[in-house]
Structure formats: structure tokens, C-alpha cells
What we know:
37% of the residues lie in helices and 16% in strands. The chain is an alpha/beta fold. The chain folds into 2 domains: 3-170, Ribosomal Protein S5, domain 2, CATH 3.30.230.10; 185-425, P-loop containing nucleotide triphosphate hydrolases (Rossmann fold, 3-Layer(aba) Sandwich).
Amino acid sequence: MGCLAIHAATLRGVEAAHVTVEVALSGGLPNITVVGNPSSSVLESRNRIRCAISQCGFEVPRMGVTVNLAPSDMKKVGTGLDLPMAIAILAATGQIPSAGLERCLFVGELGLGGRVSGVSGGIAYALLARELGLTLVGSPDFIRSSIGASTEDVALELDFISQLKRSVSSLREPSVSAFGEPAPESAALDYADVVDQESAKRALVIAATGGHGALMTGPPGAGKTMLAKRLPTILPPLDEAEALEAMLVHSVCSLPVDEIAMGRRPFRAPHHAITLAGLVGGGNPVTPGEASLAHGGVLFLDELPEFSPSVLQSLRQPMEEGEIRLVRADGTYSFPSRFQLLAAANPCPCGHFGDRGHVCRCSSSQIARYQARVGGALMDRIDVFVDVTRPAASNVIKGAKGMSSAEMRAQVLRGREFASWRSSKTEFAQPGSVESCLLSDGAQSLLELMAERLSLGGRAISRTARVARTIADLAERESVEADDIAEACAFRSRYALEDDLNGSS
């Protein structure tokens, strides 16, 4: 009788959890028994393993085989355990050499012919292998998808389990780089294509500099979607830590990470019919949602009032904490979710309320109900409200150009650099508080006055002060002046149509 242990892993949220595959041989009828809290997908591996072993010229054990997946209190999911279980069985029966296996982390799905296929979450498995000091072994495509975790990671490629007849040391190291060449910059979207929206561009520069959430309101065809899709072009590139976290989430969801590896921030624009689990994560097994896929980048919600109110309200926690926590029967799952919220909405169901070129046929009650679908709690967490008007037809026809993404990006970078320099000079116990914004006496007086006039709560006051702080950073001023407060308060006027609505009722 033989007994052997192999290193493996299973996904749990956006992390790979270490699993020890133990195999024991015993007498009795030929059978493979898997214990250790396996899911149905893991149990199905028994049939795949039998066929793969036979097709690769090995002998299927003619005895009882018990496979234990430790620790037993953790649910094992996915097909990535096929390869380590097959290797453990072959090593325990002496059909492949066991030397060197203890230094490897095996991940892969087996085909009936013995071919090793990749699974999702390559970055997560690579990080676990690095943490444990093990060599990651899997299919070539799986290894290439995991290289983005670190250029120094040690990995080996395995096409068929028959390659292990010699030893694990005979496997080849990856020779192909993980990611291709970046696309030409000329192919990127540019704000120069958006005409007659210089005030909206100014608002987006402020939002991009300070990482503020923004809501654009205007009639259909005003250019809200064009403005939104170009926001990533003015944001600074991802740093190494941000890129790794974003790549981890995308890897677990089987999405490409090439663009993120190049430092480009993700842009996610889910449809308004998205479910709660689709936005914040969930399902069985638990996987991240769009709010986590937008980590480090932009989450764009077009037609904001059309989203389910319960779905929208689920964004309150990640907007405050930068993390999503889901509590399930088998434990708590945490997903990174630091994104910049950008939303667009029509002012009314028909979209023409306040539009000088079209007549709105919605009643005041319809308009009020439509705008109320977003909810005050979420609106209170949005810092910048922008009115987007329809561009002049002559400028569109002539192909006029506005301020380019390069110009706007330069402003954003200068503002962020000044903010970083300013923060290094003074440290506050509560970064982001009103005190840390360094308001002048005139700015404080005006903020008090506007807070009463606009009925701002504590959170809204703090967020207004932070927007003013960003405006001052763009102007490279150490203190916030009254003009900065005035501009920040102008961005707090929700929809900027409330007075018109009350007047029409």
C-alpha cells in the first residue's frame, strides 16, 4: 500500500486556498473515493482521471483508492484539482517518480486524452505559489496567464500527464512573454472629439484629479456616453500594487489582463438590467461582480434611474470603504472595490425636461418619481453633478475640436502631484476631513452659508470641502479659497432642475 501528498489549491473568492491532496491505496474493489468536502465538479474528476490515466499509457489502479482533500472544513470547487489528484495517484502507485513533486503546486483540468487544460484564476494561484515557495505547474496557457503576478515567479509547463514519466525536472519553463504589445495610442478615444462640452470636461478633470464620483444629466444625444468612455484617457496609469489587484479580480473571472498589465485602468459599463449578484458579486461559487472588476478604474452606470434601486444602494459600502464583503454560510468573502463612479441620466422619462429644443411631455409627478429612483443615500455619495447640454449643430457638422485628452490629463497629473506634495508637508489624524482641506476664513464662512442654503448634511459638507480642495490643488494653492467653495457648491446642485420642476408644478 502507498500513501502520498501533493500540493494543490482551490479558488475561494479572489484568493487561492492551499489544498493538500492525500492518496492512500487499500484492498477491495477498484474504486476512487474522494473525501474532504468536494463539490460536484470535483467528484466528476474521478471519471476524467480514469480515462486520462489509461489513454496516457498508465495503468488504472486495480484496488481501492482514497483521495483526501485537506483541510476538510473548506469547500473544494472547480476542475483545477484534476491534475494534482491524478499525479498523486500515479506517484502513489509508483508509475511516475515522486522526486521533486513536493516542491510543486499543481493546477489544471484533465481532458479524457490526458491533456492538461488551464483554469481561471492564474494570478491567484501564482501568488499562492510564491507565498508557499513552490513552483507552479500547469498548462502553457495557464502559466502564461499567471506570469503577470511577477516576472520572478518560477513556473513549469505541462501539456500531458505522460510527460511526468521521467521526472518533474524534465518539464520546460515558459519562454513566451505573458502579454502582447500595447495598442497604438492613436487608436485610443480622445476628448478632442467631444465638442461644446468644455464645462463638462472641467467637471471631469476635477473628478479625475480627486477621484470623485460624478453624475452627468442631460437630454439624449448630448454626449454623456462619449464623455464617460473617455474618462480613463485622462487618468494616471495604474501603479504596480493597483495593477496586481485588478489583474487578480479579472483573472478569477476568466477575463484578459493584458491591458491592465500595461497600466491601463479598467472601464466597466454594466447594463441597467444587471442583478445584485452581477454588480457586487455572489453566486455559487462566489465570484466578484462588476463593482470589483472596476477596481482601480471607472464604473460607468448609464441610464442611472433605470437600475433597480436595491442594486444601486448596494454600492454605498464599496464607495465608502473600497471593499465588498459578502457573508455566506461557508464564511465571509472580501473583494477589492475601489472604483471611480461615473453615472449618466436623463432628467425625466422622455429625456427632454429642460431641453430647449424639445418639449417635455412628462408630468411633474412623473419627473419627481423618475429622479427619486436613485435614492438620496447614493446621491449623497456623489460629489460632482454635471448638466450636459446638447451641442451646437454647426460645430458638430464642421467637425470642431475641443480640449484634448492630453491637455486634460496634464491638468490631472499636475493636480495630483501638487496634492501629494501638499499632503507630505502636513499630516492629519483624519485624512479627507474638512480640517485637512485647509480652508481659509472666507472659505469656511461661505461653506457654512451654503450648507444652510443647500441643506447639506455632514457627509455632503465634507465631500463639498474635498471637491473644493481638489479645485485648489488644480490651481496649485495650499489653502482653499471662497471661489473654490463656490465652484464646489455649484457641483452639488442635483440635476440643477429642481427649481424649474417646482415652478412647473
